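Weekly structure sync, notes
Attendees: PL (lead), two postdocs, one rotation student
Agenda item 3: pending single-chain targets
PL asked that the sequence for the first pending target be pasted directly into the notes so everyone works from the same version. It is reproduced below exactly as submitted, 464 residues in total.
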Amino acid sequence: MVVTKRCFIKVLTPVHIGCDEVYEPFSFVVDERERELVVFDPLTFFKSLKEEEKIKFDSLSRKGTVVSLLELMKFMRGRSAEGFRIPVSEGFVSHYNRSVGMPMGDVNRIQNELNRFAIMRTAFNPHNNEPYLPGSSIKGSLRTAYLNMVAKKKPPFSLNLSEKGANRKLEQTLLDYKSIETDPFRLLKVSDFVPVKASTRIVYAVNVKKDGSSAGGLSQILEIIEPGSFFVGTISVDEEKSRHPLVNHQITFKGVLDSLRFFEQEKLREEKELRQAGINECSLKLDGGRLIRVGRHSGAESVTIEGYRKIRIRGKREYDSDKATTVWLASEVNRNYDKNRIRPFGWCQIGEITPEIEKEVDESLKVAKPVKKVMSETVEKIVERRTVPEPVIEEWPSALLTWDPGKQELKAEFEGKRAIHKGKDIIPENLRRSLIEKRKSVNAKVTIEKVYNRYSIVRIEGES
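Predicted structure, written out during the meeting:
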């Protein structure tokens, strides 16, 4: 029997899910009065310019130098444009003005400042620019929680976490499988979660030590999905054992949901650490459903298995700790932040859609902006109308893999197509040294999941 449930996800703290795209300086203007980023179509913007402005804009665009990027930003500053608007944090406008106001002579300074000014975009639907929660991200969180639940029930076993393939061996031991064909999580299908109501905002991610001091290093500028945003989608589990005789560990919808207690414990741990550091602990009140954590900067502990952690600490060569010493937090400013106003990333509430929740969603649609939704639809109709297609699985026999340490993401390229995965967890041990330490590109067989024009890496074979 296939159990399919319509579910909701409510965002509780800022969420950013990378999509390998940034807001380019020549594709937006900053409305300083309204404190908004206005993202426009470059061709439409170009057509709106006067003839002499078109010549200058075209000339700057053709230069292709670091300095010309700053010249473009100076050209764009103060101009008006039509496009979709994104609120920005209170420190963003000042940061933007500092960057645009740099003198033209110091190329190194310009390069460094523009690198800091990259605005990373959250995952979005290319047809309407609305944010969504990729099913692959949600499924990854569900898998982490489930593995932690199984690890607590099974007697501890010895495992050299430094050896090649240790992470894969750990998961195979816990779930009793040997290959992707017998992995029980093949029986779990998670759709992308599409918005009923959602908004985004530009904020900073700052790195803070758990003793309360600044961890140093650069802040990041991220587009985040704001708390209060509400998404719907489906989760299916094939619970019919007879159809899958090679799968030894049977999973159920109830078991997957019950495993989310892992995140409840993680939230308590995080609150305690933040409180000890003198930082706003950001207590959350649930009104139904379970806690789940998704997206970038969720914390090393929330994406690993308790009792089998080996977290790398910056400045040390070995993965020799069972806990992280720093945490990334969302901030309105990139420096001199108020510890009472910074918040952790990634916390959401997930649960089945009940008649009461469906009624609440209907009520929210009645006060939503007309351009966003059709009035008085039920959640069921919204899901039917807006659910994205089932993912398409592809095998890339010899993809080129590269690791981006700045974005903390893995890229795979094959026959002109590109896929990404956030984090190192998917990288086999025998490829880590070449990819991460030596920063070399390697070739490997990868399994890809495709939704719309977005490719995500779901598995990598160990051979290089």
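Discussion points:
- Confidence is low (pLDDT under 50) at residues 369-377, 382-388.
- The chain has twelve helices and 20 strands.
Action: rotation student to compare against the earlier draft before next sync.
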